[in-house]
Amino acid sequence: MAQHILNQRPVSRRPISRLCRNGFFLLPLVLLVLLGVVLPWLGSPLLYNTSSSPSFPPSLSYWREYSLTQATKFVAKNGSTVIVCTVSYPFLPFLNNWLISVSRQNHQENVLVIAEDYATLYKVNEKWPGHAVLIPPALGSQTAQHFGSKGFFKFTSRRPQHLLDILELGYNVMYNDVDMVWLQDPFQYLEGSHDAYFMDDLTKIKPLNHSHDLPPPNRKGATYICSCMIFLRPTSGAKLLMNKWIEELGSLFWAKPKEGNDQPAFNWALNKTAHEVDVYLLPQTAFPSGGLYFTNETWVKETKGKHAIIHNNYIIGYDEKMKRFRDFGLWLVDDYALESPLGKL
C-alpha cells in the first residue's frame, strides 16, 4: 500500500509546472508587445502637450509652441539624419507628390516639413502629427510664390539659417525642394564623409566619370550649383558654408540685380570657402537638372535606371510644373495619394 502511494505521480504539480513553463515563454512575448506598442509613443509630441488646455489631438496652440529642437528629435528617432523641406500652403500638392516618392524609399519618417505659414503647420500636423514645425516669423499663405519674385526670395532666403540651426543641434540634414521626385534612394550616392554634397544645375552633359570636386567658376567667377538638394554633416566646414551663405544673402553685391533668387549667394559662398570646406559634387546621371532631364530624351534613355532625384526646374509657374510632371508620369498624387503620410489633401 505504502509502495503504491510512493509510486503515484503528484497530480497537483502538473498544472502548476505547466503554468510556470507557459508563463516563462509568455512573459517575453508580453514584453515585446509592450515595447512595440508603448515605446514608439514615448518620443511622440502627442505625449508632451504643454498648452494651457491639453487636448487630443494637440491643440493649435501646441503646434505654435512646437520647437525645432522638439521636431528634429522626433523625426530623427534613433538615427542622426533629418530630411527637410520648406513649404507654403499653396504648394501642399507638391509636398504630397514628393512625400509619395520619399515613402517609396522608406525615408518618410525622417522628414521634417518647415512650414512657412500657420495654415501649412496645422494641416500637416493634423494629418501627420509632429512632422511640421514653424520657425517665426510666419509668411502669408494665400499666394504661390514663383521663382524670381520677391516673395520667393523671402521664402528661400531663410533656408541656410534653418539648415544651420539643425546642424547646431548635431544632426545630418538633407534639404530638398518639393518640386522633386525620388526614383531611387539618394543616400546610396553620399560617398565618403564630406562636409557638403550638392548637384550641378547645368544642362551640359558631363562624362559618366566626371570629377566630384567643385566645378571651376565661369568667366564671371561663379559656379552654377543648385541650392535645391543639399546634404550636410554637422561639421565645422558645413557650418562655415551656411554662415557664409547667410552673409552673402545680405550682400547688396548680388541681391540688387537678382533679388528673387538665393542660388547665386550659395554659389558665392561655395567659391569663397572652397579651401575650407570639403565638398562633393553628386553624379549627374543620378541628380540631373530639370533642364537636362526634361529636354534631352536621348540622354534620359542612355542613363535609364541611374536617376535618383529629378528636379522640376528650368520652368516657371505652378500649373506649368504640375503639367510637366504629369506629362512625364511623375505626378503621383492623382493615383497614389494614399502612399503619402498625408493621404489625400
From TrEMBL:
It is an enzyme of class 2 (transferase). GO terms for cellular component: Golgi apparatus; Golgi membrane. Residues 107-325 form the Nucleotide-diphospho-sugar transferase domain. It is found in: Golgi apparatus membrane. One of its GO terms (biological process) is rhamnogalacturonan II biosynthetic process. Its main location: Golgi. The keyword DNA-binding does not apply. Its EC number is 2.4.2.-. The chain crosses the membrane at residues 23-43. It is a single-pass type II membrane protein. Pfam families: Nucleotid_trans. Coiled coil: none annotated. This is Glycosyltransferase.
